[in-house]
Amino acid sequence: MTYQTLLVEQAGAVGLVTLNRPEALNAINTQLIDELNQVLDGFERDAAIGCVLITGSAKAFAAGADVKEMAPLCFPGTYLDDFLGRWDRVAQRRKPIIAAVAGHALGGGFELALMCDFIIAADTARFGLPEVKLGVIPGAGGVQRLTRLVGRAKAMEMLLSGRSMDATEAERCGVVARVVPAAELLEEAMDSASRIAGQSRTAVMMLKECVNRVDDGSLGEGLRFERRMFQAVFATPDQKEGMGAFIEKRKPVFGR
Ligand code: CAA
Q1: Where are the coiled-coil regions (predicted)?
Q2: CA distance 135 to 211
């Protein structure tokens, strides 16, 4: 299957998606988000895939939603068509998704990275939500996700001024998991994705659900949910294999 806006590969148990609109610094248009959802649907169904990695180019992960596509839009058209509504499906995926970011991750590009489970950044990465400079506001979850990550003061300052931050600042305030030299970004991110894909599928997906509960509800509800998931994991063969392998001093072999 070929796509107009994406390059898609499988490396072992990792599904690799490269955003590919170099002429527009990977600006995300409707076609790109539809193709991305199609690819992610396939990966969700594919038992051979344990982790997904989304990346862009050395210059840009993605420089935003496509301004040229958005410029003529009007309300109520945006409302009736639920413009950007389909983007959030990326965040609803059950398998883990890593964003490997080099260069610009701005506006919708940053929002896409924030929908992933974590970001590994090249030292060239820049993150920002500059929508205010275009007379609009972010609409794909960036305000909610950034504010939860960095707190009200920094989120307000960035959002109201449109200022972007470099990779060092992004790591310091918890936006990215790790910063690596640009030349090593893909290798490091693939390494991380392969390690995740090699774990127990059940445990990984349960962990993702548990971490997502942190944002969704109260601490009490999160603790109860985590404990239930922990109890449920004892119904899986992976628990027997993982603990058995530890006791027998060998590497575990997990099923799906
Ligand atoms: N949409 C459409 N096209 C874009 C784009 C975008 N978000 N970002 C860059 N491009 C295009 C440029 O128009 C240019 O195309 P042409 O050669 O046809 O003119 C090409 O990509 C290269 O860009 P530049 O010449 O501007 O490259 P640069 O290196 O000088 O600057 C940049 C890079 C600072 C990232 C600059 O391109 C820029 O500011 N881009 C827009 C960033 C932005 O405002 N993003 C937020 C968009 S709104 C949004 O995302 C809403 C939402 O919440 C979902």
Answers
A1: none
A2: 34
Residue 1 amino acid letter: M
CB of 65 closer than 6 A to ligand 1?
Answer: yes
Segment 82-109, tens digit of pLDDT: 999 999 999 999 999 999 999 999 999 9
Nearest to 109 by CA among 78, 141, 77: 141
Sketch the domain layout of the chain as residue ranges: 6-198, 201-248
Is domain 6-198 in CATH 3.40.50.2300, yes or no? no
**Minimal-distance CA residue to ligand 1 atom 38:** 63
Distance (Å) from CA 107 to ligand 1 centroid: 10
Predicted TM-score of the model (pTM): 0.95
